Amino acid sequence: MSVDLAIFKQIEASMEEESMRKDEIYSCVRDYEKTCRYIMAVLNRVHSASSEEVPEIAKEALGRFNEVKQHLANLSKIVPHQQFYKYYDHWCRTLQKSLFIAAFAIYLSSEKLISSEQVENLCGVKLNLNNDLQDFHITVEDFLHSFVTLTDELSRLAVNSVTAGDYNRPLKISKFVKELYTGFQLLNLKNDSLRKRFDAIKYHIKKIEEVVYDVSLRKLSGSTNDGSTDDTIMK
Amino acid sequence: METEIQSSPLGQNVDIKTLFTSLRVTLDHHYDRKERIVKQSRDITGLSKKLIFLAHRSNQKSLKSILEEAETKKKEILELFQKVSCELEGINYYKYHKSISPAIQEFIEAISFLEYLEHNRLISMNDVELNFRDKSGNQYLQVTVEDYVLGIADLTGELMRYAINSVGKGDHDRALQVCKFLRSLKSDYDLLKVSGYSLLGRKLDGIKTNLAKVEDACYALTIRGSEYPKEFYQHIVSEHARNYGDNMDVDE
To answer: Which numeric CATH code is attached to A1-126?
Structure first.
């Protein structure tokens, strides 16, 4: 009596196939990662830019999202039907990073939170808002993770915009991030990674608040013409 | 691209509250479903463990009565699997696989043990999958290669216990048979490329120690067994065990 070797041959073959698929995904994600770094390099300029230059920088970054679209299209071709979550861990970090980049660029150009439609347009992939998508998609968690990263980056921008001479931006960032935080408080989070990262938002808020305090203490923000500056940026 | 974004009406007027309220609904659905699956998974794991204990009693009771009892227990477990399977349809299978996988592995461990007791052979992956079919023949739950391989790796632990128990009962032939089976199982596992399957890597070490224990036991009974005829040896062992038990009683 011996164990049937054919069983293990079959198992070996299926494991081999899977590791090849993973390699394919890895190389895809590597290129995707590279694109994210390039776009981020563009956006990083806002930290030392004057407020007039910012929309232009955001526009340039958003213009490069065609590449993100392409990477995601490539990935979705590799993943077999209904096996999305089997491989999801391989790209979720990179995807979250690119979603953050999109949200940051959209904020810089419109001072609004990116909408689900905008995400879908920029990435060419559907957002799984109703838990009903069967193929490649962006998860709600990915979307939320990108918002947390956004609050971190905005707290940095609040500091740097003061250095660059834009005293109004910290006030606008403060209002926006607080709204976002209120949004997060509407969620019933479980004890997972999202929950931990959500807990970090309050420190980002604290950092922004300190900047706001410094600016208002010295009466540096033009509180009288605040409304009019808002209008010009909105257009 | 840029014009597309600017022309999107919602992009100009995103209501954070509305967005997050809708995200909450989505997240709640996900968390609730996961909790239901985890609960079912825990129940199934518990029942499968009981099934394994039952199988170990084959040293005491007749195999036939145990297999009969096992069959009803198995049905009970499969009913739970069928109930939970509706939560794992389509893309959700892999989404919640981590939650259900321990239950599937434990069940494979149990039925592969029973299969070995009954037929002296390794259950095939196909036979495992046949369990998860409803009356009309539809496969309501898939089994991944990983689940199967890990479940069988756990089987070696049960077989080790079974072999040592057999030695204790004086059933040397049975112990030697298990030893042979484990050996061929291990050589098959050695063929698998393990890199990337870290959990399997750890289990492989387990297989190795399980086999070593059985091999040592077989060595001992071979060398000592040669000194006396089999029945005499058994008599010594059981006599000694009885004395030991008596002493325990006296102590109390």
So the answer is: 1.20.58.190
CA-CA-CA-CA torsion sign (A95, A100, A106, A112) = positive
Q: Is B31–A188 a contact, with Cβ atoms under 8 angstroms apart? A: yes
Compute the nearest-CA separation of A117 from chain B (Å): 8
Does residue A55 contact residue B2 with C-beta atoms inside 8 Å? no
Average pLDDT value for residue range A59-85: 95
> B139 — phi, psi (to 5°)?
-80, 110
Q: State whether B184 and A2 contact (CB < 8 Å).
A: yes
Tens of pLDDT, residue by residue over B8-65, are 343 334 589 899 999 999 999 999 999 999 999 999 999 999 999 999 998 778 889 9
Residue A202 neighbours by CB under 8 Å, 6+ apart: A181
Write the DSSP symbol of residue B90: T
List the CATH code of the domain at B146-252.
1.20.58.200
Tell whether ipTM is more than 0.90.
Answer: no
Give me the architecture of the A139-235 domain, per CATH.
Answer: Up-down Bundle (1.20)
In chain A, which residues have their Cβ closer than 8 Å to the Cβ of B177?
A: 1
